[in-house]
Amino acid sequence: MGCRLDVTVEEGKVVSVEGQACKRGLTYAQDEITDPRRTVTTTVRVVNGLHPLLPVYTERPFPKNQIFPLLEELQQVTVAAPVRAGQVIQPNALGTGINVLASRDMPQRG
Questions:
Q1: DSSP of 41-93
Q2: Which among 1, 46, 76, 105 is most buried, taking Cβ atoms within 10 Å?
Q3: Residues paired with residue 80 on neighbouring β-strands, in sequence order
């Protein structure tokens, strides 16, 4: 469920938003035009873990234009088990101040 927004942008700035059904619609439209962000979820490799991959996520929405560089960076990350859910896997990813966290516990194998 959502609403269809009509956004008028002049010189890179939002000058009007119409069609929002709630207060969040205005903020969403402005953020989407000026600084679009998404929560990123992916996996990283694990050494001696119960499973070979650990699911991870960004603790806050990440700048959309830096998502693919982040995914390339995370392809190079390997962590050693055990890992606890919420543990910081990649601090300050790409200098954004946003940490990448483990989304589950990963016990050691055997």
A1: EEEEEEESBSSSEEEEEESS-EEGGGHHHHHHHHHT-EEESPB-TT-EEETTG
A2: 46
A3: 47
Tokens of 51: 């499973």
102 pLDDT band, cuts 50/70/90, is very high
What three-state secondary structure class fits 34? Answer: helix
What are the Cα distances from residue 16, in Å, to 2, 22, 33, 62, 71? 18, 15, 12, 25, 34
Cβ atoms of residues 82 and 50 within 8 Å: no
Instruction: Answer for the pair 5, 29: CB distance below 8 angstroms, yes or no.
Output: yes
Average pLDDT for 71-97: 98
Alpha helix (H) residue ranges in 2-54: 23-34
Read off the amino acid at residue 92. N
pLDDT tens digits, one per residue of 11-70: 878 888 888 888 888 888 888 888 999 999 999 999 999 999 999 999 999 999 999 999
